[in-house]
Amino acid sequence: MRRRTLSGQIYSYFLIVIVLSLLSVGAFSYIQSSKALDGQVKQYMEQMIDSASYQTDSYLQAYELLSNTVSSNSDVRSFMEMKPDDAYEYYVYSDKIKKFAEASVQSVVTLYKQLNMIYVVGQHGRSVIYENQNLLNFDPVLVQEQYDNLMKIAGDGKIALLNMSIRPVDQGSVVTMARKVRGPSYGDENRGVAAIEIKLAELAKTWDRVSLGKEGFFFIVDDTGNYIYPPAMGQRKPQDELSSLILASGNQTFIHKYNGEERMFVSRKSAYSDWNLVASMPVKELRRPADTIGTTTLIVGLVTLIVALWLAYRFGRSIIAPIRGLKESMRETEKGNWQYIEEIGRTDEIGGLIHSYNLMVTRLSDMIERVYEAELEQQKNALELGETKLERQRAEFQSLQLQINPHFLYNTLETINCYAIVQDSTEITEMVEAMAFMLRYSVQTNLEEITVANELNHVRNYMIVLQHRTGKEFEIEVAIPPSLLLEKMVRLTLQPLIENIFQHAFPDGLETHHIIRIDARKEGGLFQVFVEDNGIGMKPERLAELRQKLEQNRLAEPEETEGEGSSQRGGIGLMNVHRRIQMVFGEAFGLSVDSEWGRGTRLTMTMPETARPRIRG
Fold this sequence. Notes:
By secondary structure, this protein is of the alpha+beta class. 52% of the residues lie in helices and 17% in strands. The chain contains 16 helices and 18 strands. It has a 6-stranded antiparallel sheet with strand order 3-2-1-6-5-4, with helices on both faces. The protein has a 5-stranded antiparallel sheet with strand order 8-7-11-10-9. It is elongated, with a radius of gyration of 60 Å. It is a multi-pass membrane protein.
């Protein structure tokens, strides 16, 4: 693993702090400035579109007044119901209508240049056409071809703006404002159409004031998806993807790829004309100021980074040089060479560190002998503590040997007394002898130098006394192989288990079907003695509690009460048997319990195969 120097860490930390600061400030500035600039450009474009829409509606409303005047003229209404083959009547109405149109146009100077023509067409096929500054008569057949289309498109008594011209040469350069006209009787039936053609070139002067930069442009789409302005947009197919997006967006701003370039489109729909006035600018042009800010921030950040790293280098040298000297001196000190560092008059933290190092070296040289003396003293105390612990453990063994159930002795003596009073029987002699053997066996101090046969003999004496006390005969089945009778085990461990069974395994008394069985075996370097019964056993919760206490490796307290089934008891109980085996042979050995409620209990004493006790009495 590569070592990291202090100077490298200083440079790394300075670099991380500066880069994070520059990145956070630069990114925040760029994002915020981009949002602000996008908002300003969007607002600017919306204001221009709103202004153009307002001026367009104003112009169209002026032409609507002219359209209302023409459609409501009495001569125009009478013309709609004239006989188509009456040449004189046609001449009279045609002359009146043209003069009326000319007077109406010349009265409004602003309409003069923008008006292309005014014409009225009746359902009888005759028409009157007034072209601004010229008087023309179109072929009625040609007019008749346009009439049906006009009647379908023009609104019923309302103004309709149409991207068409009655003259093919003007197609795409004019917008037609049409309205259906009724006859002089003002009935429900429409008799014809009155239309005004407006030159887009003159009206476009209003839209050309929309300044959108070098790559921005302005266009108009009607409510059917047809492109009205400019003429170049008229070459696009109606209801294409762009016009569909504009109609669907309403007055919302959206980004769309147009001619391979991401562009922003700002649309406003005129409530009067149902035209969608749209302004478009490239996204890259909108983001150019923000990109300039980002480039500037990057350059300034790089310059700042270079200056900061140079300052970090100077700062690091002022710290690292004395620390390196201190490091070399400490290496010599580790070798046992007490090396002092010359204090160069520094008053900062490094100067304090050097002063503390010199003081430490001085004290270490004085204290090294005390350390050796302390180590020798600790070793001496450890030996004494070990001897004390050994004596304490021996005393614990001695006390465990002398623990005898006083209730058993008292009850036995009282039974002997009763026998002595009532009768002079050989049973008394047998019982007293068994009791004497038990007492003599219990008070011996050498706990380890006994055999399985010794423990079985002690159990036999216990059974003699117990049968005289209870008046019931009961046999224990011993299935230990003869080859294991001389195997070594701990004194006073088998009889407490038998006593525990008699006290707890058969609460309703002994029956003929009750069995207590003692067995032993050698396996895997272990010597195990088993004591089994077919009594009531233990409940799962009581078995778990007993196993937990066995794992704690502690002696049973005298005040502990008796439990259900084959549980531990006061005095020399299961706990003490388990702990005594561990004290003699080690923590890896001891007593284990297996039991099933209603079916019996099995107690297992586990000891080493070659019984070599750790402690001699």
